[in-house]
Amino acid sequence: MFNQIFGRFLLEQKLVSSEQLEAIQSEQKKSRVRLGLIAVSEELLSQEQADKINRKQAREDKRFGDIAVEMGFLTESQVIRLLKQQGNPYLSFVQAATELGIMTIGQVEAAMDLYQQVNGFTNTDMEDFKSGDIDRMIPLYVRSSRPLAMGLVGVMLRTMVRLIDNNISLDTSYETGSFEFENLAMQEVEGDHSILLGLAGEGNNLLAVAETFGNEEFGAMDLFAFDSVCEFVNCVNGLFASELSLRNVQVDMVPPTYYQGGCITAKDEVLVVPVYVLNRKVRIVIAVDTEIKIEA
């Protein structure tokens, strides 16, 4: 996520060209590998064990290393050692940019200082940003007074990274009393809390989710494409509902639905989180414990 956010900033500031950024990110991919692959190559896991962890991760909102420890395949110290081998994304970016002769270390650092100034980040914020850790980065861009909304955003983004695009990018979230949309796939949750979770996008932008999750080319936002996005939203809500049940919070999921053109209004506010998925801009839409009305 660091690479995409910082990369877009560099393009906006005209500090690199799109071709140069693509070259840097391509170079980074050569040195960044998944934790499971590292563990197998280090003979800490068998391929069968890694596959078991991957299958379990597809059903649970947990990291590969956490699941490996829970299943008794790895120790926490082994996971820490493996994580260090993956490489810090900021340092990986610096290495790629300097080795390709596109930016010097001083130029990268100056760009980071500018990014900090533009966003009003503290030094601690910048350390979180450079870490590339999605859980440390989310609070930098998503702000809500509702813990449930923050928790659901986290589940949605982590699921996007695992199943759709591991290089998503975020813009700063905002809250609004009404949200107009062109295409919206959504699902409501009822019970101890009322929650609306949706994914909105202009034109065919939601195809980034529909085609990747459905493993099928749709070409346009038709009924089948919307069904695929709805299934993805249902998957996220299912993970979140399971998480809530562990806290004795009971909710039931209403069948998902979709709309083409309309507006969501809320008695309180709707949280909107802009996300770039496969370079297409979509918006996560969340309303928690508030009366909502959808006009389409």
Protein model, in words:
With 296 residues, the protein is α+β, with helices and mostly antiparallel strands. The protein folds into 2 domains: 2-137, no CATH class; 142-295, 3-Layer(aba) Sandwich (Chemotaxis protein chec), CATH 3.40.1550.10. It is 51% helix and 22% strand. Strands 1, 2, 3, 4, 5, 6 and 7 form a 7-stranded antiparallel beta sheet that branches. β5 (257-277) and β6 form a beta hairpin. The longest helix has 23 residues, at 223-245. The two termini are 33 Å apart. The model has no long low-confidence stretch (mean pLDDT 93).
In short:
This protein has 296 residues and is α+β, with helices and mostly antiparallel strands. The protein has 13 helices and 7 strands.
Structural key phrases:
13 helices; 296 residues; 7 strands; 51% helix; 2 domains; Chemotaxis protein chec; single chain; alpha+beta; 7-stranded antiparallel β-sheet
Helix percentage:
40-55%
Q: Tally the helices: what do you get?
A: 13
Strand content: 15-25%
Q: Which CATH first-tier class of the largest domain would you pick?
A: Alpha Beta
Provide the residue-averaged pLDDT: 93
Radius of gyration: 20 Å
Question: What is this structure's SSE topology?
Answer:
Blueprint: H1 2-12, H2 18-29, H3 35-41, H4 47-57, H5 64-70, H6 76-86, H7 89-99, H8 105-119, H9 123-131, H10 134-141, H11 147-163, E1 169-170, E2 174-191, E3 195-201, H12 207-214, H13 223-245, E4 251-253, E5 257-277, E6 280-288, E7 292-295
Antiparallel strand pairs: 1-5, 2-3, 2-4, 2-5, 3-6, 5-6, 5-7
